[in-house]
């Protein structure tokens, strides 16, 4: 896979990677879909996936500088990660046969309902109870959707947000969850879309966005109070859901 390395391609791709890094620093991850549409303006989605797979790992490893083990909810990760691993495996097997448009539509609908219920309560942070079944389901669903549709964030958020974790613990747990997920899905994505030539050159250029993007997002995170943090997460879920909805509908129309 290759592409023409124009100024527009470089600027748009760099901006998309920087945005993903910023989200990683501010919210711990899970919102990479916000940046991927930008890359689709200058390359096909498969090429974008192959380019981003190694960059996700760089972002995650740099993000661990800020989201250290003390910020992780280890009991939740112990419940979530086995499902994530299984889900990524299932997602890879289904990648060639599943209708990506249907996945996008279902995830958009579920996410919008989830966010709507939160706003209906006036944005109150209600502390729920942990459930092994919910955690495993969230892990599996996130694994499948992150592999198939680059949208693993909503299932994880639907499990973590109702727990009422502190903003630091929420971001740290999310960061570690997707560090594991991105490490695991890098290999299958590179098998599906191996970067070569100009794509590799563009990948190296975009590495420069990682430190500054993650750091800037982290600095914003420290200035947010608990309610602002959760409000930001839910608003980003709306953006993600709208993008998924558009992908699904436009895919059937075209």
SSE topology:
Blueprint: H1 7-27, H2 36-39, H3 45-63, H4 74-94, H5 100-120, H6 132-148, H7 153-160, H8 167-192, H9 198-206, H10 209-223, H11 226-253
Helix pairs in contact: 1-3, 1-8, 1-10, 3-8, 3-9, 3-10, 4-6, 4-8, 5-11, 6-7
List its traits.
mainly alpha; globular
Can you describe what's shown?
It is found in: Cell membrane. Its main location: membrane. InterPro entries: TM_pro_TauE-like, TSUP. This is Probable membrane transporter protein. Belongs to the 4-toluene sulfonate uptake permease (TSUP) (TC 2.A.102) family. The chain has one domain. Helices cover 74% and strands 0% of the residues. The mean pLDDT is 83. Helix 1 packs antiparallel against helix 8, helix 3 runs parallel beside helix 9 and helix 4 runs parallel beside helix 8. With 254 residues, the protein is mainly α. The protein has eleven helices and no strands.
- The chain-level structural class is mainly alpha
The major β-sheet equals: none
Mean pLDDT: 83
- Measured by DSSP, the beta-strand proportion falls in under 5%
Helix content: over 70%
Number of domains: 1
Number of helices: 11
End-to-end separation in angstroms reads 24 Å
Please count the beta strands (DSSP E, at least 2 residues each).
0
Query: What's the alpha carbon Rg, rounded to whole Å?
Result: 17 Å
Low-confidence stretches: none
H/E element string?
A: HHHHHHHHHHH
Task: Using the alpha-carbon principal axes, give the shape.
Answer: globular
């Amino acid at each position: 896979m290759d592409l023409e390395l124009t100024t527009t391609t470089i600027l748009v791709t760099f901006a998309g990677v920087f945005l993903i890094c910023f989200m990683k620093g501010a919210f711990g991850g899970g919102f990479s879909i916000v940046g991927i549409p930008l890359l689709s303006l200058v390359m096909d989605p498969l090429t974008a996936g192959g380019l981003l797979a190694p960059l996700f790992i760089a972002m995650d490893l740099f993000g661990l500088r800020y989201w250290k083990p003390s910020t992780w909810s280890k009991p939740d990760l112990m419940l979530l990660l086995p499902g994530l691993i299984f889900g990524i495996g299932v997602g890879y097997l289904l990648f060639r046969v599943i209708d990506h448009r249907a996945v996008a539509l279902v995830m958009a609908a579920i996410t919008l309902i989830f966010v709507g219920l939160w706003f209906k309560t006036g944005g109150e942070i209600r502390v729920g109870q942990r459930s092994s079944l919910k955690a495993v389901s969230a892990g599996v669903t996130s694994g499948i959707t992150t592999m198939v549709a680059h949208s693993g964030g909503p299932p994880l958020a639907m499990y973590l947000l109702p727990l009422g974790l502190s903003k630091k613990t929420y971001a740290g747990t999310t960061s570690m969850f997707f560090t594991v997920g991105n490490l695991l899905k890098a290999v299958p994505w590179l098998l599906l879309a191996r970067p070569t030539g100009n794509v590799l050159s563009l990948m190296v250029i975009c590495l420069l966005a990682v430190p500054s993007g993650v750091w800037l997002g982290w600095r914003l995170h420290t200035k947010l109070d608990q309610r602002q943090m959760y409000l930001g997460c839910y608003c980003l879920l709306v953006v993600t859901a709208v993008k998924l909805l558009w992908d699904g509908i436009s895919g059937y129309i075209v």
